[in-house]
Amino acid sequence: MISTPDKTTIAFIGTGTMGSAMAANLINAGFQLVVTTRTKEKADVLVSEGARWADSVGEAVRDADVVITMVGYPDEVEDVYLGDDGVVDNAVAGTYLIDMTTSSPKLAREINAMAAVNDLHALDAPVTGGDVGARTGTLSIMVGGEEEDFQAVLPVLEVMGTSVCHQGKPGNGMLAKLANQVALASSMLGAVECLAFAKAADLDPVKVLSSVQAGSAGSWTLANLAPRMLAEDFDPGFRVKHLCKDLGLALDVAEAEEITLPGLETAAQLYRMLATVGGADMGTQALILVYSDEATCAAHGLDWEAAMADGDDDEDGEGQGHDDGDPHHHHHHHDDPSDPPFSRN
Q1: What are phi and psi of 238, to 5 degrees?
Q2: How far apart, in whole angstroms, are the C-alpha atoms of residue 14 and residue 296?
Q3: What separation, in Å, do the N-terminal and C-terminal C-alpha atoms of the chain show?
Q4: 345 occurs within a structural domain
Q5: Set 7, 40, 42, 177: catalytic member
Q6: Do residues 35 and 144 share a domain?
Q7: Pair 53, 125 in one domain
Q8: Domain boundaries, position 229
Q9: Domain boundary residue among 168, 193, 228?
Q10: 3-class SS at 52?
């Protein structure tokens, strides 16, 4: 059982934008933190705030009561947990393992099974709420795993999130997060097309946004990301390449369950296209550039000729086989292949 924060050591692996903010909240709550990440400089701020640096995953987890991982992709999760010098081989019996990466439900179940053999307690607990939620400790956390393990780590999770919900058996946390990404995909499309429509109709998009957000079409995306779109602020709270990964994972589940999700498929295709032309490391709000003029795109470093050269190649090779039927065919034709697909040049 987890003791009071001052007597609880947490190994935190992965200190990117989200992870660093989440780890800082744990330090502020009094937990003893050990951190490790691929690029040591990314942990410098946490170390200055009292965290201890470890040179490897194995070293980080050996004395930990709880291990939290927040990395980028499923293959990294697999390597951290099951690879040489990984978590499962080095954690002490009884340790709680919490993967907060958005990853594969199947992998989460595999890690849970491997952990159980070693008398470890594994939970999958991906989050939503973006960089702001990570900083303010107001994330929504979806947890898969055994009920008693969930209850044991709840005090830790409640430091990082205000909505912490046990979704059921191992893997269900990941599935719930992918359901969130399905909703997010169409919500992003809705926000972008709302602003593109307003601009095309010669309306003031700021005023339109003010009215729409106050009515029944209001959403988190419109409130938090649409203002960034209008300001052409494409700094990443959540990167395009990571959303491409998430939507690919959701498409894989949809295919396995034989459910067709046109909104998800369209959003996935547009985000992969945006990644291909140079937007992979931009924030997800950069989807507005697909609907912007060529000069605006060029100013932000996008090269639409790359999309023509690359065809419909899939970002990170995920979610392949879901591009049957091109949603662009029903839109106006561009003579210049360097034009963004939905702009009016």
Answers
A1: -140, 125
A2: 34
A3: 62
A4: no
A5: 177
A6: yes
A7: yes
A8: 175-330
A9: 168
A10: strand
For 320, other C-beta atoms within 10 Å of its C-beta total 12
Q: What is the pLDDT of residues 286-295, one digit of tens each?
A: 999 999 999 9
**Is residue 336 classed exposed, middle or buried when 0-12, 13-18 and 19+ CB atoms within 10 A define those classes?**
exposed
- Please check whether residues 198 and 270 belong to one and the same domain: yes
State whether 26 and 153 are in the same domain.
yes
The CATH number of whichever domain residue 148 belongs to comes to 3.40.50.720
Contact 319, 268 (CB under 8 A): yes
322: pLDDT confidence band, cut at 50, 70 and 90?
Answer: very low
7 annotated active-site:
no
The token pair that represents 336 in the structure block: 């210049």
Decide if 209 is inside a domain: yes
Same domain, 162 and 179: no
Residue indicated by tokens 């960089």: 131
User: What gap in Å lies between CA 52 and CA 50, rounded to an integer?
Assistant: 7
Q: What is the pLDDT of residues 221-232, one digit of tens each?
A: 999 999 999 999
For residue 327, pLDDT over 70 is answered with no
pTM here? 0.88
Where does the chain show beta strands of DSSP type E?
9-13, 32-36, 52-53, 66-69, 96-99, 121-124, 127-128, 139-144, 161-168
pLDDT tens digits for range 60-77: 999 999 999 999 999 999
